[in-house]
Amino acid sequence: MTFKDQFKFVRQNLKKNKSRLFMTVLATAIGVAFLIVLASVGFGLHKSIISDMMQNQLVTQVEIYGKEDSQGLTNEDITYFEEMDGVEAVTRRNELAQMPFFQLDDYTSNTNAIVTHFPSEIKADFKLASGRLPEGENEVVVGYHFTESLIKNGANPEKLYDDEGNINEDYVYTDDLLNKEMDMEVIKLTDGKETKKTISVKIVGIAEKPARDWAYEAHVFISEEILQEVEQFTGVMRGATEMYEGGELDAKQSEDVYDYVKVYANNVQEVEGINKTLEDKGYMIYSIANEMKQMNVIFLIMKIGLIFIGTIALIIASIGIYNTMTMAVTERAPDIGIMKAIGAHPRTIKNIFLLESTYIGLLGAIFGTIVAYGVSFLVNLSVPFIIQTAFDEAAPEGLLLSYIPWSLTLISVGICLLVTVFSGLRPAKRATKVDVLKAMRREL
């Protein structure tokens, strides 16, 4: 008996009791849909978090805090980083040790001032929303949110913020910033006495909006010459307002020591090798790629747990398949007797019933998968609305509560077929032991 003949025989028998077939397939489909939708939550959250991490080159970024038994990162270290295999760019920044006041027309901002190396920043994908890079000593670039940090002088503190926590529009600077002159005011303290110095700067560029919605960048990129001018005024390294131990200018090394250094790899695959090399050399680093490893393990355990829980629903559905196949063996006893009488091999009889249980499982897997994709689509469509309604705030951009990769579909279908085959195995074995004479008399 060929496989084609066995399949035709199975379909003919299934058509004899369509209601029972429908209920069995329905139970299996519900089990498969439950398994896929439940596990898709783990896949969806994993994908959303990883996608969020990969924004703004964070996944290829390695932050270097210093080196063991070293006073700081110098140009010698920068050169070593740039010569490493797989490194695309090395950015370095120094921060003014006080927050200066920036006065523009009748508006003031109290924010950080940073010195950076723009050629390396450009290699690391630093972009401007408008304007150009500084060319003169007193030209600066401001962060994307610098405008929001400018507050009108004399603003009433009680009316500064509206009911939603945003700064009142009446107190926010609204004109174009480009090519505007503003004053940068720094201070120094000598025996408790405050002295001020004003440096005039010109805004020539505005940085691009950060990739992350929650990121707030209102700092000002100043030149190395401005930093040195502030240091000469205060007499302290990095322009701190007061002297501290080791802050004397004459104690400064001849080469620069950088406050923040970041290495950017060419691609994600290079990060692990760069991390290992830097750690072996004694550098203290932080890379989100290392954090992603731990997160991947956590989500893997979560996915396995969800798949296991979903499999329980399939096991429950398999009880229905077992009952269906047991009844089928009982009802088809005469057919089994005839097949045995004409010389059918027990293995053929067993294969017919296994094929029938597999067919039921395959139908349930197909319909269950279709339902799961539909439910997943509706969940992702409704979640932003539910969050907006319940919490009165927008859902995170790119949030996927449910995501069904092909791997999950294949795993679920595989589990379904495995469970259904095992469900039909015992009835199939029972069919091979049916007595021919009793079967012909419609007895078991």
UniProtKB/TrEMBL annotation:
Keyword RNA-binding among UniProt keywords: no
Keyword Cell membrane on entry: yes
Topology of this chain in the membrane: Multi-pass membrane protein
Subcellular location: Cell membrane
Domain ABC3 transporter permease C-terminal: 307-434
Swiss-Prot/TrEMBL keywords: Cell membrane, Membrane, Transmembrane, Transmembrane helix
InterPro entries in UniProt: ABC3_permease_C (IPR003838), MacB_PCD (IPR025857), Macrolide_Exporter_MacB (IPR050250)
One Pfam family matching this protein: MacB_PCD
Highest taxon in the source lineage: Bacteria
GO MF terms held by the record: transmembrane transporter activity
Transmembrane segments: 21-45, 297-322, 359-383, 403-425
Residue intervals of the MacB-like periplasmic core domain: 22-157
Any GO CC annotation of this UniProt entry: plasma membrane
PANTHER family, per the entry: ABC TRANSPORTER PERMEASE YTRF, MEMBRANE COMPONENT OF TRANSPORTER-RELATED
Homology family: Belongs to the ABC-4 integral membrane protein family.
Name by which UniProt lists this protein: Metabolite permease
